[in-house]
């Protein structure tokens, strides 16, 4: 598939069927995420993969509880066969920028104009979303639901890592259709968002 087609076809899929994601396909999607830019080549982004209903339902039990009630979003998204927690490690960046070849940049967190540990994790997630389209799958990026500490503790994630968000992966359900804000709000035209030479 041409890159421009991948970009045009990328959308957030919110309803999955229960077919598993092929292991080779999953590895290629994760490898795409590994190729994301990394400030100073700090490589502080890591992924925790929950694959199959035993692992994914454990996550949902920790965040949504056992009762879904009438929440249509939760009912549909819980069918995703694979969840990837995208984790950033600020310490990896502060340590990297304390090394001799980066010594001109103070490593303290407050000197960073933006938290590149989270920026880089977001870029990794975007590459996985695009790779999923290229592989013929659906994907959704979403934020953690509920308190983080129970999830971190249950999945034994080291305290230095923060979950920037999750990527749900799977085969789109036949009933999946564009939904959410993109169906009620128009995409802003290039002329409104691209500024050339000055604002």
Characterization of this structure:
The protein is of the alpha+beta class and 199 residues long. Helix content is 37%, strand content 15%. The protein has a four-stranded antiparallel beta sheet. Helix 1 packs across helix 6 (116-134) and helix 2 runs antiparallel to helix 6 (116-134). The radius of gyration is 18 Å and the shape is globular. The model has no long low-confidence stretch (mean pLDDT 86).
Task: Map the helices and strands.
Blueprint: H1 3-9, H2 23-34, E1 45-51, H3 53-63, H4 72-77, E2 82-89, H5 90-96, H6 116-134, E3 138-142, H7 148-154, E4 161-170, H8 190-193
Antiparallel strand pairs: 1-2, 2-4, 3-4
Helix pairs in contact: 1-6, 2-6
Q: Kindly report how far apart the N and C termini lie.
A: 36 Å
The total beta strand count reads: 4
Percent helix, as a range, is 25-40%
Instruction: Flag low-confidence runs.
Output: none
Strand order of the largest sheet: 1-2-4-3
Compressed to H and E, one letter per element, the order equals: HHEHHEHHEHEH
Helix/strand-derived class?
alpha+beta
The dominant shape is globular
Q: Give the strand content.
A: 15-25%
Task: Give a brief rundown of this model.
The chain has 199 residues and is α+β, with helices and mostly antiparallel strands.
Main attributes?
globular, single chain, alpha+beta, 199 residues, four-stranded antiparallel β-sheet
